[in-house]
Write a structure and sequence with these properties.
The structure holds two protein chains of two kinds. Chain A is built from nine helices and eleven strands. Chain A is of the alpha/beta class. Chain A has a single domain, classed as Rossmann fold. The longest helix of chain A has 14 residues. Chain A starts with a strand and ends with a helix. The longest helix of chain B is centred in the N-terminal third of the chain and has 37 residues. Chain B has one domain: MetI-like fold (Orthogonal Bundle). Helix content of chain B is 78%, strand content 0%. Chain B is mainly alpha-helical. Chain B is built from eight helices and no strands. Classes of the chains: A alpha/beta, B mainly alpha. Chains A and B meet through α3 of A and α5 and α6 of B.
Chain lengths: 256, 220
């Protein structure tokens, strides 16, 4: 069964149709990179999948938990508030700007939600968080505050925060855009490691090389729909669609 | 040359008044901190009625003199509405008027602080499953408090000096007593001593606020 299933997703802001009937399924252990020009709707797709935006139309399901289905009038009908909060333990989101809580230590950033929201046992969560930090190479930073960390370190903390509840799927919203180019490698390494552990991931990025390096499947979006998708080598090196070719040509002229 | 021979006696009488001033100060703050926050939330509410009511409230409170507000709160119930309240001492009116007035200013400070928190903080909290109340009290409010300490310090210092306005309702706070002494003695000594006391009061207040600011300095 697909870990994430989105069908016929429509979303508009006022008169602007951002997503126009998009469908996407992600299988267990798959790493999907979503690329496309700005305004193509890739961020909105991620925000709908992570419940930061509500879909106008369409279906959304994580595994066998259906979050929203199309009602009789075609509009999305979401499950109740309490069920939505439980669904949030099924996925994690890593933001472009990390969005760590500045007044919490690194450790508290990771353990507070599991303890206060999921009501997990504090000692167990703590132990797990320290192990995650160790894995991220940040064991010594548990008591530091976010402002004391580099961007790459902050991003790794936010990945640990997203992983603490054992999500079925992890979403990344341009995880390297706010980082210096030389720090991109740190994040790439972490994502590769997660991929080796069969973590299911959806990564919105505008770095073609990043997509090529981590993804099993590249999804190219434009104008609110998926224009083309497939293996990175196929989509990035032998694109079938004119729109994809134009985008990649533009990207390579900017980043030779 | 003014006569400073009875300074000790003056100081002792003024200290009695200072105690009342401190009570006005403390009680006003105790009620203003939460009430100002409630007004701020009203100002930012999605409900248009609530938003406008609080907007007008803030506008009136900031746009009219506190001294006038003191008079209205004390005399208004009878002279405006014909209601004679039993057991309505001027001191209570002073606290009510001060809380109403200062809450308007505090509300705007809170509002500025709340709107300055990046939307990403709310989004991160939402994704992690925090409820709205948890998000506000655990994630947003602590950051707001850190940011608003400097403007709050301004207001708190102004409040120390504003307690002297309670004289219009003949509450025996420090300034009322200083004026009575100055009149009786045809001397400014009592006023000078009161000035020193106000300054020391504010010196302590500023010191405390500085401490609070330093304590919140562990993060950025």
């Amino acid at each position: 069964m697909a870990v994430l299933r989105i069908e016929n997703l429509h979303k508009s802001f006022g008169t602007l149709d951002v997503l126009k009937g998009l469908s996407l399924s992600v299988e267990q252990g798959e790493v999907v990179a979503v690329i496309g020009p700005s305004g193509s709707g890739k961020s909105t797709l991620l925000r709908c999948a992570t419940l930061l935006e509500t879909m106008d139309r369409g279906t959304l399901a994580f595994g066998d938990s259906v979050v929203a289905r199309e009602g009789a009038d075609g509009r999305s009908v979401y499950v109740g508030k309490n069920e939505l909060r439980q669904v949030k333990a099924l996925f994690g989101l890593v933001f472009q700007n990390f969005n760590l809580f500045p007044h919490y230590s690194v450790l508290k950033n990771i353990i507070d939600a599991p303890i206060c929201v999921q009501r997990r046992r504090p000692d167990e969560v703590r132990e797990e968080a320290l192990a995650l930090l160790d894995k991220m190479g940040l064991k010594s930073k548990a008591d530091a505050y976010p402002f004391q960390l580099s961007g790459g370190q902050q991003q790794r903390v936010s990945i640990a925060r997203a992983l603490i509840n054992h999500p079925e799927i992890l979403f990344f919203d341009e995880p390297t855009s706010a980082l210096d180019p030389e720090l991109t490698g740190e994040i790439l390494k972490v994502i590769r490691q997660l991929a080796a552990e069969h973590m299911t991931m959806v990564i919105v990025t505008h770095e073609i090389d990043f997509a090529r390096n981590v993804a099993d499947r590249v999804v190219f979006m434009a104008g609110g729909v998926i224009v083309e998708q497939g293996r990175p080598a196929d989509v990035l090196d032998h694109p079938q669609q004119e729109r994809t070719r134009a985008f990649l040509a533009k990207m390579s002229s900017v980043n030779p | 040359m003014p006569d400073f021979s009875n300074v000790e006696l003056i100081a002792r009488q003024l200290l009695g008044g200072l105690w009342i001033s401190v009570q006005i100060f403390v009680l006003t703050l105790v009620f203003t901190f939460p009430f100002g926050l409630v007004v701020a939330l009203g100002r930012m509410s999605r409900n248009a009625v609530l938003r406008n009511v609080t907007r007008i409230y803030v506008s009136v409170m900031r746009g009219t003199p506190l001294m006038l507000q003191l008079l209205v709160v004390f005399f208004g119930p009878y002279y405006l509405f014909g209601v004679s309240l039993r057991n309505y001492p001027p001191f209570v009116a002073v606290i009510v008027a001060f809380v109403l007035n200062y809450s308007a200013y505090f509300a705007e400070i809170y509002r500025a602080g709340i709107t300055s928190i990046p939307v990403g903080q709310y989004e991160a909290a939402t994704v992690l499953g925090y409820t709205k109340a948890q998000t506000f009290f655990k994630i947003i409010l602590p950051q707001v408090i850190k940011r608003i300490v400097p403007p709050v310090t301004n207001e708190v210092i102004t409040l120390v000096k504003d307690t002297s306005l309670a004289q219009v309702l003949a509450v025996q706070e420090m300034f009322t007593i200083a004026k009575q002494l100055a009149n009786a003695q045809s001397s400014m000594v009592a006023l000078v001593v009161a000035g020193v006391f106000y300054y020391v009061f504010n010196f302590v207040v500023a010191l405390v606020m500085e401490r609070i600011e330093a304590r919140l300095d562990y993060y950025r």
